Amino acid sequence: MSGNRRPRRLGVAWLASAVTASSMLAGCASASPGDSTTQPSAPAPVWRDCEYGRCTTLPVPLDPVYPHGRQVSLAVAMRPATLPRRGAIIVHPGGPGVSGRARLASVDRTGLEAFDLIAWDPRGVGGSAPLTCLDGADADAFVALDAVAPGVRAADASLTDAAWLGLQDASARFAQACRDDDAALVDHLSASDQARDVEAVRDRLTGEPLRFLGISEGARVGVAYAERYGSQVAAMVLDAPVAATRPGDPQSAGFDAALVRAGWTGRVQALLDRVWASPMPVGQRALTRPLAAAGVAALLYPGGSGIAALGSALDAAEAGDGAPLLSVADVWNGRTANGNYGGLLGAFRATRCADSPVRTADAALAAWQAEAGVAPVLGEALGPDLVCVGFPAPSTPPTGAAVGLSVPIVVVASTGDPATPYTGAVGLVSDLRGAVLVTRDGDGHGAFRRGAACVDAAVVGALTAEGPGFAVEPQRC
After folding, report:
1. Where would I find the beta strands (DSSP E) of 203-320?
2. pLDDT value of position 37
3. What one-character DSSP code corresponds to residue 61?
4. Residues 233, 230: Cα–Cα separation, whole Å
5. CB atoms < 10 A from the CB of 40, how many?
6. Computed from CA positions of residues 137, 138, 139, 140, in that sequence, does the dihedral angle turn out positive or negative?
7. Are strands 48-50 and 53-61 parallel, antiparallel or unpaired?
8. CA–CA separation, 274 vs 243, rounded Å?
9. 242-264 pLDDT, tens per residue?
10. Which pTM value belongs to this model?
11. Could you give the CA distance from residue 118 to residue 9 in angstroms, rounded to a whole number?
12. Reduced to 3 states, what is the DSSP secondary structure of residue 105?
């Protein structure tokens, strides 16, 4: 799954470092301030064959203010051009919390054969200083928790409710586990930090103007890059973008809308209420309301095929078998069959917290109540985001106001995208000067390579254009 899942204690799924204060200071003691994406003395990267094609590692400063301080080694993969090479396209396939190297193989390169495709594991993920928070039974308990007692709706929730306080305490332990693993990394996971990593990849691995394909959460990183390094952009395509420049419809509004289109709103609500009142046993575990909601949401991502699978999972759950929905929720949360969670569970939350404005329990409750008001099924059941409470002040999010490129930013989106509502793409285009929206009429997350000829032509045309003179017209198909 790619996508910008609104964080709560659940993990993402189509959707991963411990430095103490004294060691951080020691690492910075001999560093000179600055703002650099590169380590001046770093050797030239060496490419080698790997399971993703060709791989290398690229050291980048953890904190750009201290370019000679601690380095994060980014794990990078490339699928070399299969026709005479014309350049490189750097791909951010979404998340956060998922491996870009692993997702690279899924990119359909038809029309892009003359370009190297390059992706990397974002900092905190996979091979790039992976971040681990809770695991095993502790993580199982965390993702199963509800914010309120059965029958208490979000609108009636209180900061003093026992269930709320239990979730708040568990979320604080989760956040502390992330910081215990790597506090310095947790403080440097913002879209701005990742934009500097994109620039390092471009500068040191290609040396060419940037051709960028950002999917879902990758749009936030793309906008941050364009604000800081706009003169380097030769082409930028943002597919199924999150609302990167302004507050937009919450993700759960997209999920609820997908349920309406499927005609299953009442059916899903009844199941959520059932497991809320009495969690459904599944072996040694149980399907709770948050886990059931995660399973439903995950199956809405693909569109048609997911809807069919969701129907089967609902049939099973209504007959007392919660295993299918729980297994999908496990994938959503990054849980493996042996009960380990790897890095997805923590990297998703910590990365989102870097740019989230929520820092207090009051703000978390208000945000959840507002979301449940517009998405009363899954906005309610997925619950509030309390992990970010107590995090350092968030970075300044991109606004798009400073973006002024010599080429149009091409934004493509599906009208029925369940994970990144279409309104987010409309708002993004309004905020980015010269941006053009190409629309796919249809369901499912993403628009590129989903059967819409006008979308595919616009994306390929933009990414392969020889100069700034290409034009893309707003269109819909």
Report:
1. 210-215, 233-239, 280-282, 285-287
2. 52
3. E
4. 5
5. 8
6. positive
7. antiparallel
8. 33
9. 887 777 889 999 999 999 999 99
10. 0.88
11. 31
12. coil
